[in-house]
Amino acid sequence: MECFYIPRNEKSTRSGQMPHPPQTIVEFATRFAISAELYQTVLQDRLRPKGLTLPQLSVLSHIARQQRPQRVTDIARTVQVGQPAVTKMVSKFHGAGWVDLVDAPNDQRVKFAQITAKGAEHLMTTQRSLLPELKPFLDQYGSDDINTVLKILNDFSNMLESFKP
């Protein structure tokens, strides 16, 4: 059963090419969903022995990417994890020495989290160990192939980001 309607005289959309047929769009979405689920499962299994969950890895990665201390509320909003959960994670990271907590200049009740050298090292070691099979897998493909896939993934991510309220 066909679930998409495409007019017969649909105009080309990219450099003279016709739009992708519905079955290709469904195949793309299905393959992406399956790959995302498998990737998450592998990461969860490999993070467990390192004492981290996927949301914790996301929060720690976000803190590490920032060039300045981050408020817990801003971290929670960016990584889309509830503020109480992020507060608990940041406390765990602080206890492990992975982040420093800095008082806000105007309000001592507000804390800012900043990655420490120990936290950055733990994150880098963890990230490198999560999927060592990825490099040999990607080495099978040329730079142009990888760059094309990266562009598609970035564009797809940006499209999904645009759906956020």
Automatic annotation (TrEMBL):
Signal peptide: none annotated. SMART domains: HTH_MARR. One of its GO terms (biological process) is response to stress. Coiled coil: none annotated. Residues 25-158 form the HTH marR-type domain. One of its GO terms (molecular function) is DNA-binding transcription factor activity. Gene3D superfamilies: Winged helix-like DNA-binding domain superfamily/Winged helix DNA-binding domain. It holds the Pfam family MarR_2. This is HTH marR-type domain-containing protein. It comes from Marivivens niveibacter.
